[in-house]
Amino acid sequence: MTAxxxxxxxxxxxxxxxxxxxxxxxxxxxxxRALIEEDYRRRGLSPDEARRAAALALGGVEQAKExxxxxxxxxxxxxxxRDAWQLLRTLNRHRGFAFAAILTLTxxxxxxxxxxxxxxxxxxxxxxxRDPAALVVITPAPIPVISRATIxxxxxxxxxxxxxxxxxxxxxATLVDGGVSSSIDRAGVAWNFFSFLxxxxxxxxxxxxxxxxxxxxxxxxxxxxxxxxxxxGDPAVIGRHLDIDTRxxxxxxxxxxxxxxxxxxxxPATGVSESPQPAILMVATTATAINVLGRLAPGAAAGQxxxxxLPAYRDISLARFPAGxxxxxxxxxxxxxxxxxxxxxxxxxxxxxxxxxxxxxACANVSSLLLARASVRRREFAxxxxxxxxxxxxxxxxxxxxxxxAAIASALALLGTTWVSAxxxxxxxxxxxxxxxxxxxxxxxxxxxxxxxAAGLGCGLVSLASVRSLDVTAAFSDSGTPAMSGRTRxxxxxxxxxxxxxxxxxxxxxxxxxxxxxxxxxxxxxNAHNVLTLRLSMTPNRLRPATDIGAASAIIDRLAAEVRNxxxxxxxxxxxxxxxxxxxxxxxxxxNGISIEGVASPSGPDNSFVSAPFVTPAYFDTMRTPxxxxxxxxxxxxxxxxxxxxxxxxxxxxxxxxxxxxxxxHILVDRRSLTVxxxxxxxxxxxxxxPVAPVLFLPLSQMAVSHIYYGLMSVMVRTxxxxxxxxxxxxxxxxxxxxxxxxxxxxMPMENRVAAAMQTERQSAAIFTALxxxxxxxxxxxxxxxxxxxxxxxxxEFGIRIALGAGRREVLRLVTAxxxxxxxxxxxxxxxxxxxxxxxxxxxxxxxxxxxxxxxSLAATVLAMAxxxxxxxxxxxxxxxxxxxxxxxx
Amino acid sequence: MPSEHTxxxxxxxxxxxxxxxxxxxxMGPQHAYGLxxxxxxxxxxxxxxxxxxxxxxxxxxxxxGWIKGSWQTTESNxxxxxxxxxxxxxxxxxxxxxxxxRLSALVNKLLTGDV
Lengths: 890, 115
What we know:
The structure holds two protein chains of two kinds. By secondary structure, chain A is of the alpha+beta class. In chain A, the strands form six sheets. In chain A, strands 17, 19, 20, 21, 22, 23 and 24 form a seven-stranded mixed beta sheet that branches. A six-stranded mixed barrel of chain A has the order 4-5-10-7-9-8. A four-stranded antiparallel beta sheet of chain A has the order 3-12-1-13. In chain A, helix 6 packs antiparallel against helix 12, helix 12 (336-386) runs parallel beside helix 14 (442-463) and helix 17 packs antiparallel against helix 23 (759-803). Chain A is globular and about 130 Å long. Residues 263-276, 430-434, 479-484 and 705-710 of chain A have low confidence and may be disordered. Chain B is built from four helices and three strands; from the N terminus they run H-E-H-H-E-E-H. A three-stranded antiparallel beta sheet of chain B has the order 1-3-2. In chain B, helix 1 (15-27) crosses helix 3 (54-64). Chain B is elongated. Residues 1-8 of chain B have low confidence and may be disordered. Chains A and B meet through helix 1, helix 2 and helix 4 of A and helix 2, helix 3 and strand 3 of B.
């Protein structure tokens, strides 16, 4: 229907630029009239009669114009446009009001837009790879290492997959370029890594299969960051020979800027997220891969693929492992997008909810401002009403006002978001996988618009109360106080709502701050200061001579001893310990069905799960985990001596609550008897916040007692005060002297791991605190607004009261009651609301309950202080009231 | 039939547009007064054409692109906006006329035939 479309376009054009149509019509009507007149005169009428007859024939000119306008354009739009212009002129006159309202709304809308843009980038937007929906993460169990032969076998066997690639975790490496050394993140990737992900190589060339052949010269591709920051974007870097960890490497290419390694936000098995850094990517030559990605064939689902991956994994990767492992083989397949988003979705929803509260506080404040202004506009409305504006027209006037304010705020918020997201990028870089991709796209734009519209309509609807209670006669009669009371009541109610929501936010911030403090200060059973950690995998090429698990264990034990000796000889190293599960990385390895000889379990057989890390001697000393009694493992604890174990205090509490000490007791586990030779202090297991669980430490040298095998071990190195980062290079070289093919990953100070484990809490606390401060500021402005309005309205009354002999103190009491009343009401309502709301935070809290009394009082105090501070200015004005001036107000 | 006794005819919604199109198609370019005079003349009884009510119809048709208005001078050398039917308007007139005929035939049949 082109004619219809054409017409709508024309009407829109007229609605936006009505003047031309209007003058044209006036001219046409005048001509029309002249023609009739002329006609009638020709028929013999006198000029006067002709004029009258012409007017009669033409009908009401104004009415015709009105009909024409209706047909020509969209009248409501025209009205809205005119109202908006008029409003902008009025706002210019009431700059204080406009400033306060727009600032408040900008903060509210801006916070929402900024958070949404993050949410959008992380959860809603596809990953920046080719066909990202088809990418899956393959996580094999029970051993998280896949041989390259397995991947090759998958390529032919897995018909539901179109391709695979792999990459190792990053590690800090030493880059030597022209005699100057610096640190860079290094990672091994499969040769098809970039082509598989669809990440373009913007300079030089991509890896080729030939690069991965044995004996091929080592080549590398730089991340864009590394190219820019380490080589100043010099194109001549292509073909340059660098020295990475003392090995010569040739740079062949530079990856596209959007690409970050690890596959942006990759979370390795340790649970420690790595932040994107300048990285150099080299073709991995190790026989095993740590992280494997696959691409689903069109139409295939992640769940169907598993069965196709199982045989090759079981028969090739696990070939040298006992049958028990092969029967438990289960590669997990999970869409990459889900893996990345799941970790964040809930947290982001919580933050979005919080930021929505800030918007509500802002809206309540603006509604309150609008109501106050409505008393100024009362006269205008009365005039409009008297000359025939209907209720609907007045409603539109009020709504237009708030929507225009919101629209201005929305534009400012978009500008602000661009700036804020740039500022938030470094803060969120670790947590948000695609933080680099945060930008304003149509979704952010639409969200911003929708929030602004909702806020505008919401504020407008509340202030409609001013139209509803409009009493034309009262408005014209000069003293206008009576009509005000209803509005004042609504304003105080709004203030109470504001205070209530603000209380919830402040309480959340206080609880999270307490959490961070508790996490920081509580005893986690180890001292992370001056400790370097790394993950090490020396299997399976070095295990090849082993014919059975016992022999394999002996080899591992020997290798571990060599590693310890070599690292121990590094300058600056005080002690070295190896452990299969470092603190904060406890996984699901351990035993069920433990019992203690001579101790009857009160409630029948105890089948609870106990983590069982294997450690080398000196591990506890290295971690500064206090030995409560007994002794540490020693080199004399070997496969053929008495089987020994060290338990933690929680173990003792759990299995032998009535015995003073388990020292010397025999633990029955896995059909073997272990003698307890030591008891150590409790240590945080998988996270900083876990309740401390029973742990059974076993010596690595006696690993044969168990059917458990760990492909990866953590090496913990305590320095004699040297910063751990400084010895990283020497430690790596010491390991490579034992096994040149060893995969070393996640080289970092232990303190970084601890910080990473607290990251969620720290960031949540920071965000909540920022939002609570904003809400607090808005609420304070609200208190101030209501207070100064009350003072302005009642100056005369106060003057009379004072003139009649009332003390200023009494007047003061009146004013403060006006301001603090709603505050107290808001807090009274806010406390139960907060008690319910903080339950949503429970998962983030540590060392403090959602109903923590101290936190509640602290939040209430903060809020009360802010409210009191906001009353100072109005109160001072009351104190300055001069009865004579006050009486002269009218 | 003496015209004084005929009830005044109210134009059916939408028919005015059709009538204007038809008049412009038959008479060539006309100004609003010319159209009004012509319509009053054709109708053998006075129908309620308040001349101002022509304007919404004219603007509707113009916005649909079916007629086009331009300022010209009359024979008596006065300025007036003359409306002419466009080729698209001619096509639309044919369609609308057919539609109207079908509708009126149906209405006639319903009103006079045995239902």
